[in-house]
Amino acid sequence: MARVYTGEVDVGEVLLKEGHALPYVPGPEAKAKRLATWCPKGN
């Protein structure tokens, strides 16, 4: 795992808060949910 900071700001936390990222959860069901969020069928 890695954390990216710009100054004192955790970039990942900002992305999560603003809705540009999802928290990582392991497992096939969580992966399917991530894929459905970022790669919806028909788009």
Task: Write the topology of this structure.
Layout: E1 5-6, E2 9-10, H1 11-17, H2 28-38
Antiparallel strand pairs: 1-2
Features:
43 residues, SNase_OB-fold_sf, 2 strands, mainly alpha, two-stranded antiparallel sheet, elongated, 2 helices, single chain
Q: Give me the number of helical elements.
A: 2
Q: How many DSSP-defined strands?
A: 2
Taking the sheet with the most strands, its summary is:
2 strands, antiparallel
Give the end-to-end Cα distance, rounded to a whole number of Å.
31 Å
Structural class by sheet pairing and helices: mainly alpha
Task: Explain how this protein is built.
The protein has one domain (5-38). The protein has 2 helices and 2 strands; from the N terminus they run ββαα. It has helices at 11-17, 28-38, and strands at 5-6, 9-10. A hairpin with a 2-residue loop joins strand 1 (5-6) and strand 2 (9-10). It starts with a strand and ends in a 5-residue tail after the last helix. The mean pLDDT is 90.
